[in-house]
Amino acid sequence: MAPGTASGAALPLTTDDMCPVCKTIRYLNKDMEFLINPECYHSMCSNCVNRLFNDGPNQCPYAGCNRTLRRKGFRSAFFGDLIVEREVDIRRRVAAVFNQAEDDFETLRDYNNYLQMVEDLTFDLVSGTEGKRHAAEAQLQQWEAEHKADIERNRKAGREADEQARRRLTAEREAARQRRIEAIKEAEDEKLERARSREAELDTLAQAPEGQRVQLKRRGQTSRAGGAAVSAVETAVNTAVATADVGRLSIRGLKEKRKAPMPEGPYDPFGGSDFVPSRYKISEGLAHPQIEKYRFDQQHITGGYSFDGYTARAMFEAFAGLGVFIEDEKEVGIGMSTGQVATIGAGIATVGDRMELD
Amino acid sequence: MAAEDSRYRESSQFRQWSFSPAQLASMRDKANTLARTSIADRLSTSPPNNAGTNPMSAPTSSANTPDPDGGTPSLPEFLTPAEEALLVTFYTSELLRAGDHAEMGDEIKATAATFFRRFYVTNSIMTYPPQQMLIVALFFGCKAEGAFPRITDFAHTFGKEDPQDILAGEFLLCQGIRFCFDVKHPFRALRGAMMELRKLGDIDASRIDSAERRARDILRFSPLVTDAYFHYTPSQTMYAALSHADRGLVERLIQETFHYVAPPTNSGPDTPTASSDTSTLAASRRDTNKGDDGNKAAIIGAYIRDKVLGTIEACRDMLAKEMPERREHWSNKTVIKAQIAPLRKKLNKCHDPDRWDLVKLQKVRREQALKKSDSEDGEPGDRVASSEGDASLFGGDLATAQRDAKRRKVGAKGLDDPFGGAL
Q: For residue B40, what pLDDT band results from cuts at 50, 70 and 90?
């Protein structure tokens, strides 16, 4: 890439140890620094700049470069590569003019189109032919003239946004610092409190009358008097300082205590089905002469045959299914469909299925 | 929902063997059609070289063809579903006669008859021989009801020398009834109804006795030779039979049961009987029922009562077609000659050649099962050699015929499951 050839002579690195104009080497001038002029991006040592341009505008000393330079245009380059320096300067100029933000556009596509236009312009300015460059410059000037108000507004908004960001950052840093200080202070306080309470215990132990049972506290448990305040401090400390305190009884992060599940009733082997008859009642008066003769038959009585069981079963069968109307219920298709049974049956008939060996 | 009804709904009789008349008719039609197509296949593809050698297969192939050595024989006339139904009824009454002859109990005969009828809902009478199946049904009915006869004694009772004749069809029967061995009968229900009537106290005892006798006679015959077991629950059947015997008793019973009248106010329902029962559950239930007026009306209210009466009437009409007096009809020689004999002749021509002989069928299937369990390197020659004796009966190469039969799956998918496929 040699875009600089179009604009004239190649731009050498300014970190060279020799000034291209006066051929002074760094050995002779230890603090030699190179300056460039944005007009033509030719670098020369500061001595040359002073010598040549102190008395007014003068021609650039590089061979072939006919630009008139002034002393105040010179500055030190930020980038070592002057091509980059030039491009950065151009971009800075363009960005000063085209400083619209995404929020100013209705759709993303519009914003992208705008960015594309800007980039095309920049490319033309940076590495276009002579004609293109001039056209781009002209466009730039025209845009600036047209949108002066917008440019000003955007600049102001940008400055404000920067201010806010800076302020926020400082505030956060400040808050973090404060928290750290507080945590350390609390740790100190808690230590003091511990020491103090220990002393107090020893005092009570020392002053207690003989024979009184002294209740020793577990490590970590505090007396009830200062309990509330101290526990608050302790919770704060534990969150800030990670201490492994084995005697602590409270656990952090417990979920809401779940209600105990409702106690289920005793296991129902019939799954809730009801055995109480709804159409009849089993009473003592139920008897049948055919059954009566068995009440005195030793073969039945000895084994403990339950005539009530027979009665219950007979009554059940007399009334079970009385309200079951098969025609209504089976039309809906409960159970196997008609075709299926016939198909299966005929299938057994037609296909030779394996018969189980006896 | 009444507790008794929901318990009845759990039974296999309700779930799998209760149908509406339309469903039952369509099932029989379907069985008939499927049997027709499969038998037609079998008859039309049976090789023609059996015609001259075997007298048994002669009728099958030479029914309509003048030339026994000719090409494929034309198909015989098949039984229509109506004719099949007639034959099933006839054979059911034969079954009951055989049961009477062997002095079996009421429930055993009823179970056997039900098995028989159910079997011929899922299978066509052209496929399996009813004469043999009814003996099998009797034997298996005995076993299902808890009386375990010895097979040799049983066979002697019916004049069969070989127990295999009966045992060959047993598993087939089980498959046909889809392994629903528990059949609920109305006999105990009749006892229960009688108990209830006696408890009422104001009915003549002799009237109750005679009604019971007559109702029992009806129940021993009529529901079994009609389709009552498919369309009505046992209690409804029992009431229908009782209404034939003595209508007033049935009405009295229904009145007593479905007495509930929804009270205008919110006072509790009036139950006629005081708490003479011993269960405390009923007492607590009465308390909860105080707020259950709607439920009680659904169970024992007026609407249900009318519906039940209507159902009992319908069952009564169905039973009326086949009252016990018809027993003589079904065993009458002239009737048999006029109606049943032609159908029998027809059946002889159009029955399934591979399945008519149950013993042979069982043997063939066992061999197939063995062959399948053995490795695949059994030569076809061996198979043919081993079953040479049976080859003539089935007309030609047994193995190939069976294999062809297996390949000709008509409609239904192959059933590897001995329980006969998913519900």
A: confident
Which residues in chain A have Cβ-Cβ distances shorter than 8 Å to B308? 322-323
Q: Judge: A279–B257 Cβ closer than 8 Å, yes or no.
A: yes
**Has residue B269 got a pLDDT over 60?**
no
Interchain CB distance below 8 Å, A355 and B171: yes
Q: Do B21 and A327 touch (CB under 8 A)?
A: yes
Distance from CA of B369 to the nearest CA of A (A): 6
Whether residue B112 contacts residue B73, with contact meaning beta carbons closer than 8 Å, is answered with no
pLDDT at B276 over 80: no
The closest CB to that of A351, out of B5, B308, B409, belongs to B409
Q: Output phi, psi for B375, to 5 deg.
A: -70, 170
CB B59 within 8 A of CB B349: yes
Closest Cβ opposite residue B195 in set A286, A330, A345: A286
Nearest Cα residue in chain A from B37: A350
Of A326, A273, A325, A323, which Cα lies nearest the Cα of B297?
A323
Give the CA count within 13 Å in the CB-facing half-sphere of B46. 27
CB contact under 8 A, A273 and B6: yes
pLDDT of residue B268: 38
Q: In this complex, how many residue pairs, one in chain A and one in chain B, have their CB atoms less than 8 Å apart?
A: 271
Neighbour tally for B337: CB within 10 Å: 10
> What DSSP character marks residue B340?
I
pLDDT attached to residue B281: 42
Residue A45 phi/psi, 5-degree rounding, is: -75, 160
Rg of chain A over all Cα atoms, to the nearest angstrom: 51
Q: Which residue has the tokens 């528990």?
A: B182
**DSSP β-ladder status, A34-36 and A68-69:** unpaired
Q: Which residue of A has its CA nearest to B122?
A: A345
User: CB of B318 within 8 A of CB of B241?
Assistant: no
Nearest CB among B123, B189, B311 relative to A318 is that of B189
The DSSP 8-state label assigned to residue B338 in this structure reads I
Q: Nearest Cα to A325, choosing from B129, B296, B309?
A: B309
Q: Which residue has the higher pLDDT, B46 or A342?
A: B46
pTM of the predicted model, to two decimals?
0.55
DSSP state of A73: G
Q: Nearest chain A residue to B27 by CA: give it.
A: A342
Region of residue A120 (left: phi > 0; alpha: psi -120 to 50; beta: else): alpha
Paired tokens of A329: 């219920």
- Nearest CB to A347: which of B9, B184, B415? B415
Element (H, E) at A21: none
Distance from CA of A305 to the nearest CA of B (A): 17
Mean pLDDT of B87-108: 92
Long-range contacts of A127-132 (CB under 8 A, 24+ apart): A127/A3, A127/A6, A129/A6, A130/A6
- The token duo for A215 is 């209740």
Q: Where are the alpha helices (DSSP H) in B271-301?
A: 280-289, 293-300
- Regarding an ipTM greater than 0.85, the answer is no
DSSP code string of B364-417: HHHHHHHHHHS-TT--HHHHHHHTHHHHHHHTS-HHHHHHHHHH---SSPP---
Q: How far apart are CA A23 and CA A27, in angstroms?
A: 11
pLDDT reading at B263 higher than 80: no
